């Protein structure tokens, strides 16, 4: 189980160094602002689906309203895809993305 300290460095230009340093970077579910849904409805969805307390759901909704979007969940990609689909089922616009470093 010894390491070869003389191994040649990987000089391929397509290597994403950030990817190899942080392989388990989580994913995020992002809810985006839309012209259709009422603010009270977005709060209710966040409370019902994610179980957030009203204060948290309201803060997230205000981020959506003022900043155009809010990260509503973070974790494994498969779970974030399920969350985004659930948001679509509620009529909200949601996407997933890798969490920034």
Automatic annotation (TrEMBL):
- Check the record and name the Gene3D superfamilies matching this protein: 3.30.1390.10
Q: Name one GO biological process term.
A: proteolysis
Q: Fetch the InterPro entries from UniProt.
A: ClpS (IPR022935), ClpS_core (IPR003769), Ribosomal_bL12_C/ClpS-like (IPR014719)
Q: Which residues cross the membrane?
A: none
Report the GO molecular function annotations.
peptidase activity
Q: Where is the Adaptor protein ClpS core domain?
A: 24-95
Q: Which UniProt keywords apply?
A: Hydrolase, Protease
Q: How does it assemble?
A: Binds to the N-terminal domain of the chaperone ClpA.
* Its biological purpose: Involved in the modulation of the specificity of the ClpAP-mediated ATP-dependent protein degradation.
Query: Which family is this sequence assigned to?
Result: Belongs to the ClpS family.
Tell me what this protein is called: ATP-dependent Clp protease adapter protein ClpS
The organism named in the record is Microbacterium horticulturae
């Amino acid at each position: 189980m010894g390491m070869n300290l003389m191994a040649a460095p990987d000089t391929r230009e397509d290597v994403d160094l950030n990817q190899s340093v942080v392989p388990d970077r989580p994913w995020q579910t992002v809810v985006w602002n839309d012209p259709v849904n009422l603010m009270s409805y977005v709060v209710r969805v966040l409370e019902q689906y994610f179980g957030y307390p009203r204060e948290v759901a309201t803060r997230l909704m205000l981020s959506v309203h003022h900043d155009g979007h809010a990260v509503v969940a973070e974790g494994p990609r498969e779970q974030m895809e399920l969350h985004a689909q659930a948001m679509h089922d509620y009529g909200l616009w949601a996407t997933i993305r890798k969490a920034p470093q």
